[in-house]
Amino acid sequence: MIVDSAGAPPRVLRRTLGLWQVTVSGVGVILGAGVYALVGPASARAGSALWLSFLIAALAAGLTAYSYGRLAQRRPKDSPEFQYTALAFGPRVGFVAGWLMLVADLLAASAVAIGFGGYLAHLAGTPGALNALLLLAGVALVLHAGISQSIWLAIVLTVVEAAGLVFVIAVGLPHWPSTSYTQMPEAMGGVWAGAALIFFAYLGFDELGNFAEEMRAPERDLPRALFLSIVITTLVYVAVALSAVAAVDWRELAASPAPLALVARRALGPGADTVLALMALAATANTVLLLVLSASRSMYGMASEGRLPAVLARIDRRSTPVAATWTALSVTAVVAVSGTLVQAATLTDAAVLTSFMLVNASLLWLARGRTTAGESRTWLDVVVPILALAMCAVLLAHVGWLALGAAVALAAVGLAIGRARPVA
Predict the structure, then answer these.
(1) Which domains does the chain have, with CATH numbers?
(2) For residues 117 and 129, is the Cβ–Cβ distance under 8 A?
(3) How many CB atoms are closer than 10 A to CB 19?
(4) What is residue 2's three-state secondary structure?
(5) What's the CA gap between 99 and 45, in Å, rounded?
(6) The pTM is what?
(7) Count of H helices and E strands in the chain?
(8) Considering Cα of 68, then 145, then 119, then 346, what sign does the dihedral take?
(9) d(CA 338, CA 111)
(10) For 6-15, 33-42, 348-357, 371-380, which range has the lowest pLDDT when averaged over its residues?
């Protein structure tokens, strides 16, 4: 809650979101550019067992989503990684977790904006960097209109991007019975490496915590939205993986910069390629919109707790954290003109997995200690975060030393910033 001047009424985020709006938003940000772009690189590592990589990534995401849901019931506030980790280990460690996720959101938004620029360049021949900047300008206009308008647009775009994936599933479905799904060019090590890369496609469930202060009943609906988002997207992803390698040999998918468009072209010709490219534009635009929206709320949440400059917590008359929103857009734009999708995806995964480990450790720590009055402690609160920690650690080991080193460096920067800021 922010007061702009003496005697002025306080401004707060409006609680307008319900279960289905947040669930659809979660599905929308998960079903984004990751699956459209990373099916190719992931199939190069996992082969026709790509479906198994998706299941492994889904398991890691689902176990961590349980921790998010349980911790959200204790502290339903924006910037969930910061809030949840601070609950267990204090604000300085909490800031490291929130900082890592904030950086990851901005990197992911930049990478997906690059993907949008590439698809539009393929269709219109305009420069990719300019296309990415034009997308961010459009996102700025939508976010300025307010949270409800942003979510409604996200819902429309989610329907479009989901339709593209349903099309891919339908194209490959007749070939399922005659396809071998056990070809692993690098054995199980390649399947795990594919899972580490494809984990980028599951990012988004964690962003739902950034809607907590704009939900009508976050303690009840946020855990449900997390569960539903993971289940729905996993069913779609596995079906897409099965159909993609059934319609096109995994080696051809690995060599294609637009693997799902290749599936469409192989089935119905060049016209289908164009249609799927248009759907990919909707998917990438939707993901950038929701990631920037989430990053701005994460900045707002940490600024409200005194961990980032107070200006980032200011809310305008439309109940929008305007300074945080423009900061997120500016950083995304700078990175978008100087990066690549795969590089940003691996670095994003490293930062996200490190933050996830801190969140899972927080639930484990709180479960083994005293519980808050009125809370019940279950064995799941111990077992699930242990399994989630193990899964995240294995995936983290497969992102590559460069990305892992960058994540450690980012964590060190976050720790230094956290120490420099006064404890709220």
Answers:
(1) 19-370+377-420 (1.20.1740.10)
(2) yes
(3) 16
(4) strand
(5) 31
(6) 0.77
(7) 16, 0
(8) negative
(9) 10
(10) 6-15
Indicate the DSSP class of residue 215: B
Angle, in degrees to the nearest 10, between helices 259-268 and 270-304? 150
Mean pLDDT of the chain: 83
Long-range contacts of range 414-417, CB-CB < 8 Å, 24 or more positions apart? 414/95, 414/96, 414/98, 414/99, 414/100, 415/92, 415/95, 415/96, 417/95, 417/99
Percent residues over pLDDT 70 in the chain? 89
How confident is the model over 14-42, as pLDDT tens digits? 676 778 778 887 787 677 667 877 888 89
Lowest mean pLDDT among 86-90, 212-216, 380-384: 212-216
CA gap 130, 303 in Å, rounded: 32
**Phi, then psi, of 2 in degrees rounded to 5:** -120, 135
Phi–psi pair at 75, nearest 5 degrees: -145, 80
- Find the angle CA(38)-CA(233)-CA(228) to the nearest 5 degrees: 150
Please, which residues have CB within 8 angstroms of residue 303's CB and are 6 or more apart in sequence?
A: 309, 310, 311, 312, 313, 324
Rounded Cα distance between 403 and 411, Å, is 12
